[in-house]
Amino acid sequence: MTIAFSAAASPASAAVPVVAPLAHANLGERSQVKALSHGLEATLQVRLSHQCGMAMVWQPADQHAAASCSVAQLVVRDLSHPRSAPHTFLLSPYGPNSGYGHMEMSLYQLDAASPLPQVIVSAYTGGAHCCELSSIFGQMPDGTWRETSLEQSESDGMPTIVDVAHDGTVEIQGVDQSFFYTFASYAGSFAPITLQRYHAGQLATVTRDPAYRAYLAGRLAAARKEWVDGGQSEPNGFLAYYVATQAQLGAFAQGWHYMLAHAESSRDATFGISICDMRQTDEKKCTPAERRPMPFPQGLAFFLQKQGYITPEQAAAVPLTLTAQDGKDSGPGQYGPDFSCDPPPDHNGVAAMLCHDSDAARHELLFDQVYYALRQQVGRDGWKALRQQVIADENAANHGCGLPEPGAADQDVPDGAVACYAAAMDRLTRQYRQRLTGAALEESSRPLDTHIALQRRLVELGYLPAGTEADGVYGEATRGAIATWQRTTHQPQASGFLSDADAQALLPVAMPPDIHSAGNDAPSPATKPAARPHLNLFGGGVILAITVFGTCLYFLPFGVACIRDSTRKRSIFIVNVFLGWTLAGWVAALAMALSFETRSDYELRHQAKIRIITEDHGPDSRM
Fold first, then answer.
1. How far apart, in Å, are the Cα atoms of 88 and each of 45, 72, 75, 138, 433?
2. Of the four, 31, 139, 512, 587, which is 20 to 30 A from 269 by CA?
């Protein structure tokens, strides 16, 4: 038997303020070890058992368990109350072929309000990068003992206990293991830190507490240095962690723009989020296109929302276009005009400005988003008049900003012209948008990056030719691709416009995703969102009809009693209400309703009885 006594805590490290245990013991291949500290005695012991299939802390009930086995137990005793009985927890089978080994325990004062320390017990289950099971055992305020499970860890050894704020309050530090293997290999994955506090058998996540921001920021900087020094391999594995941690620090937008500038654009089929993943659908029911990982920004936005790092509104509003390829930073928010800049435009100062100034190009594309929606709305017959009006309005805007006319000798763009041009295009955008309605208005109003991402999605699914540049201009080819997609996926309308419902179906992260309904299986994620209003209306009518019919059928006996005007309606109602849910009770109530005397029969019988009595006591009866 090995006993581990209370140990003095070592000074907390400034970088990682790890708290040493009050006591520690490793069971190993021994049959029993003890740990003592602050009035608590904890014993880990292995005993032969003939009840191997019973439910234990780390094992559910198993009807096929062996007849006999070795079982690990934790026995805790409150030494400050010698008369109190010890409490025993059956942990799991233990030893070779049991699936559990290398069991150890540590005593910590996790709950400052508890008079006794808590016991953390861990066991190794085996496997590559896996797995350590851990539980906390603590005494509740009423004197009982309770087990609290910690998340299964892919690290080795006991959970890490820290005092981040150096205030004497300890936290359980872990990592969000959902990041492993999602966007990179295990070696290339970085996982955000999680911090939890324990109190009275409950765990509370406190990672976003402002008191811990400096610690998280320091760990983030150290991780970034490690990634850079390591050659920035598998960048998306690091960037997913980077954006999540920045979200925890309240700087999600900053982290997102950093990601866009450094993300890898290649589509590795091994890692990433696919439409199948988003819908949680059996892969066998998904098409090859639905099984392919979507672009990293789209998958990351969905993943971070699902894991609770960002809100649905944040996921829907973020730009989805990478500003750099293969990790090379070219600055945030790069946009180009709706024409080719290769070769550079000649004798056209406005075109040159749009090719060299991303912000000016963005405002032009925002107007194009409205213009091409209006173009589709007015139809071919209205194209010529619309184009003439747009040219006149754009020329007036350029003239008002002092921009040169194409072909003029002087093509210099005056100072302040970019800001003036952006404001003028925004005015035109608002002016033309007022003429849009319905799906055309919805399409023209969504974020530009989402608008472009939807066009790119049509390329990925094969509705637009491979290699088509997604520039945000929804010309005839894109309109035809949208209409074809709408027909093949059975959308309510094949209008060529991408309504909000269409955008949600085509690219679920383009609109705030409904996580709670993601588990519904469907042959295609494109069919359900658009059909949902019709299904809800029909389903609601059916449910209402069934409810009304069922209620009428249930109270049929009482209804019959009312129609027949039975004198025993009260009795029939009581039997119908309280026993009608059984077939025998319902039949009995109906039989009562059909057989009991009606009020008219009762009155006739009563009148007849009176006549008989009157006749019996009349003058003739006394003769």
1. 10, 10, 4, 12, 71
2. 512
The widest CA-to-CA distance across the chain, in whole angstroms, is: 144
Q: Is the dihedral of CA 260, 266, 267, 272 positive or negative?
A: negative
Total count of residues recorded for the chain: 623
Which DSSP string do the residues of 282-343 spell out, in sequence order?
-GGGS-HHHHSBPPHHHHHHHHHHHTTSS-HHHHHHS--S-SSSTT----S-----SS--SS
Give the amino acid at 314.
Answer: Q
Burial 324-343 (b: 16+ CB within 10 A, else e): beeeeeeeeeebbbbeeeee
Q: What is the rounded CA–CA span in Å between residue 192 and residue 238?
A: 10
Q: pLDDT-derived band of residue 205, with 50, 70 and 90 as boundaries?
A: very high
**Each residue's pLDDT tens digit, 322-370:** 654 433 333 334 677 877 776 666 678 888 888 878 888 889 999 999 9
Amino acid at 116: L
Q: Pairing between strand 69-78 and 101-108?
A: unpaired
pLDDT, tens digit (0-9, with 9 covering 90-100), for 531-583:
334 444 455 567 788 888 888 888 888 888 888 787 787 888 888 877 878 88
Q: How far apart are CA 272 and CA 289, in angstroms?
A: 14
DSSP 511: S
Residue 376 near residue 474, CB atoms below 8 Å: yes
Mean pLDDT score of the chain: 82
Structure tokens at 163: 């005092």
Confirm whether pTM is higher than 0.70: no
Q: How far is CA 51 from the centre of its chain?
A: 40
With 0-12 / 13-18 / 19 or more C-beta atoms within 10 angstroms meaning exposed / middle / buried, residue 99 is middle
CA–CA separation, 430 vs 407, rounded Å? 30
Contacts of 437 (CB under 8 A, 6+ apart): 377
